[in-house]
Automatic annotation (TrEMBL):
Keywords assigned: Transferase
Species, as recorded: Piaya cayana
One Pfam short name: Sulfotransfer_1
InterPro entries, alphabetized: P-loop_NTPase, Sulfotransferase_dom
Residues in Sulfotransferase domain copies: 1-155
Class in the EC hierarchy, top level: transferase
Keyword Heme among record annotations: no
Chain coiled-coil ranges: none
Family of this protein: Belongs to the sulfotransferase 1 family.
Known EC number: 2.8.2.-
Gene Ontology MF term list: sulfotransferase activity
Protein name per Swiss-Prot or TrEMBL: Sulfotransferase
C-alpha cells in the first residue's frame, strides 16, 4: 500500500478550492468560513487529522509505504526509485525518467482532459507546496500547528510530515 500524505495546511487550501469547483459539495463564502469547518471536522469527507490518525495504525506494517507529497515534489527521481523498490519493480534509468516526466504535475494537468474529462480542471489546480501561505492568517497558522501537534505529534506519520514540511521548509 502506497500512502501519499500531505501537509494539512496545503490539504485545507486545495480542498477549499476544490469545493468551490464542485457544485455538489458544500461551498463556503469565505476562506475563514471554510477554515472553521475544516478545523471543526465538518468536511464532506471527514477530518484529515482523523484520516492520518487511522492510517498511523498501519504505518509500521511492512506492506505500507508512507511518502509525502512534499518529498515527491522535492525529488521525484528518488521518490520513483523508492516507490519502485518498495513495490519490487526493477526500473531502468530510462524507465525512471519516463515515470518522472509523466508523473509531473504539469504533465498530469496537461493530459487531465483526456484522463479525467471536465473534472480534470478541478482536480489539477496548482500542485504547489506551501500554497497555504497565500490564504492562512497568522492566527490560522498557529491553530493548525496546535491541532497538528494534538492529533499527530509523536506519531510516525506526524514525525514524517513534520520533518518534510517544517524542518525542510
Amino acid at each position: 500500500i502506497l500512502l501519499l500524505i500531505r501537509n494539512p495546511k496545503d490539504v485545507a487550501t486545495s480542498f477549499y478550492y476544490f469545493t468551490s469547483g464542485v457544485p455538489t459539495l458544500p461551498s463556503y463564502e469565505t476562506w475563514d468560513d471554510f477554515f472553521i469547518a475544516f478545523m471543526t471536522n465538518k468536511m464532506a469527507w471527514g477530518s484529515y487529522f482523523q484520516y492520518l490518525s487511522e492510517w498511523n495504525k498501519y504505518a509500521d506494517a511492512e506492506n505500507v509505504m508512507a511518502i509525502t507529497y512534499e518529498e515527491l515534489k522535492e525529488n521525484r527521481v528518488l521518490g520513483v526509485k523508492n516507490i519502485a523498490a518498495f513495490l519490487g519493480i526493477s526500473l531502468t534509468e530510462t524507465e525512471v525518467q519516463s515515470v518522472v516526466e509523466r508523473s509531473s504535475f504539469q504533465s498530469m494537468k496537461k493530459s487531465s482532459q483526456k484522463t479525467h474529462g471536465a473534472f480534470g480542471e478541478i482536480l489539477f489546480r496548482k500542485g504547489n507546496v506551501s500554497d497555504w501561505k497565500n490564504l492562512f492568517s497568522e492566527d490560522q497558522n498557529e491553530k493548525m500547528d496546535k491541532a497538528f501537534e494534538e492529533h499527530m505529534g509523536g506519531t510516525k506519520l506526524g514525525k514524517k510530515l513534520k520533518y518534510e514540511v517544517y524542518c525542510k521548509a
